[in-house]
Amino acid sequence: MIRNAALNDYEAVEAIMEQVQNLHAGWRPDVYRAEVTVLPPDYFDELVRGGQALVWEENGAVAGVVVYRERQTGGPVKMERKTLYIDSIAVDEAHRGRGIGRRLLDECRAIAQKRGCCGLELQVNGANTRAMKLYREYGFGEKSVNMELNF
User: Fold this and answer.
1) In the 8-state DSSP scheme, what is residue 93?
2) What are the N-acetyltransferase domain coordinates in residue numbering (predicted)?
């Protein structure tokens, strides 16, 4: 079931976030640090108190998490838009491939629609083909592409 994250979820959420961090560190050790605290406790506290984190709970254990926020964009050359930006979405490795990520996205979509947002946005690591497949199947399309030239 999906519910708002609670302060006592910290250890389980951090463990899931560290799994994903370590995937990123494996793909890009020149960019990402392995074995680090991803969500410092005070930041997690802010997310919980601000209602910006949801968890998927199964049999009394946290199996997935999504962290999101409303984002306003616009300015002199861009149209004003309000979106729900997904900062992080992660599913415990033992529970992947069972639809939990899709259910978390469904809940984010419902929240975005209730708040009058025009859509969902997120970023994904180019090496994370499994996540990209999920997002494409869900209906996400590319908005921009980050490129780099390393020396």
Assistant:
1) G
2) 1-151
